[in-house]
Amino acid sequence: MLMLSASVLASTACQMSYYAHSAYHQAKLIRSRQSIQNALAQTQLNDEQKRKLKLVLETKAFGENSLGLTPSNNYTSYIELEEPYVTYIVQAAETYQLKPYLWSFPFVGDVPYKGFFRRALAESEAAQFDRKKFDTYVRGVSAYSTLGWFEDSVLSSMLRYEDRDLVELILHESIHTTLYIKSAAEFNERLASFMGHEGMKLFYMNKEGPHSTNLKLAEDDSHDQRLFSEFLTKEIDLLKNWYESQKGKITSESKARRLRYIQERFSEDLRPHLKTQQYVDFEKRELNNALLLAYRTYEYGHEDFARVFDHFGRDFKKTLAYLKSLEKNPKPDQALKDFVSGVAKN
């Protein structure tokens, strides 16, 4: 997840209240940060929190030294938050199409979400959408990348994560700093999700060896991530076709039935094969198009990244180098699919 930096946003004249909000809270965060070394020497943090801060430093070093991620001063400082989340994200989608509402910003281009440092403001933004025309979804975010505009800090919200999730998160956000393609937010997030997870497995292989309990659990996570991505990709493509075929005939009731059908397929076809609990809440959530697109942002189409990773012998650096070659491509998703198709033919 990225957060638009205040210094970039301030360069445009529109939405000045939003930019002032972002600038104020980003500056407040910067003022409150301290080095991790200082945080480790203080008594406010318990032993478990200190252990996780050390894990962050270890992960950062591994990412830069072994995975080829761009060296930076990110994650060398710590911030104690006043709220459970650092930001709150709004996403919106058309009611009867799987079409995201896009916000446009300088340098980063079009993105399918907008972040606020206060939940009330995010909910206010969501409330401005006509409910007859748009679905909305608001969620809290524990971490984000400023893409190098500021030094990203470890946040107290991140220390709630399990070890493997924390390692993956640090690598995920560091990948954003290493590689970001303008106006391709979903591609960027899927890339970071897939590569962050693979990097996390390499971290535990390097740290604890092939018989590591954490590595075994990470493999179970990968198994479920692959199955869920395949399931979600298929269901979203089918739903998109359904919306197009029923254009002009859809009612709120028929839409609700169609979304419930997706959850029924999850319960009956997928859940019995899952090894972990990471997706079990899918069948209980109140699905709408905005929430489905939030899932799509991170989970859709992982098989293409997996095929590229396999093609390069599961070599993280070689795979990352190929993905970086797409930085100037206006359609990285299609370029990736074309590459995968070419590999399959050879």
Structural summary, described in words:
The chain is mainly α and 346 residues long. The protein is 55% helix and 9% strand. The chain is built from 13 helices and eight strands. The chain has helices at residues 6-9, 16-32, 36-41, 47-66, 119-127, 163-178, 185-208, 213-245, 252-270, 289-299, 302-311, 316-324, 332-345; strands spanning 34-35, 77-79, 87-94, 103-105, 109-111, 114-116, 134-141, 154-155. Strands 1-2-8 form a three-stranded mixed β-sheet. A three-stranded antiparallel β-sheet has the order 6-3-7. A two-stranded antiparallel ribbon has the order 4-5.
- Intertermini distance: 35 Å
Report Rg.
20 Å
Number of strands: 8
Helix/strand class: mainly alpha
Q: How would you describe the shape?
A: globular
Please trace the helix and strand order, writing H or E for each element.
HHEHHEEEEEHEEHHHHHHHH
Q: Helicity range of the residues?
A: 55-70%
Biggest sheet features:
3 strands, mixed
Beta-strand residue fraction: 5-15%
The helix count comes to 13
Mean residue pLDDT? 91
Low-confidence stretches are: 3-14
SSE layout:
Layout lengths: L5 H4 L6 H17 L1 E2 H6 L5 H20 L10 E3 L7 E8 L8 E3 L3 E3 L2 E3 L2 H9 L6 E8 L12 E2 L7 H16 L6 H24 L4 H33 L6 H19 L18 H11 L2 H10 L4 H9 L7 H14 L1
Parallel strand pairs: 2-8
Antiparallel strand pairs: 1-2, 3-6, 3-7, 4-5
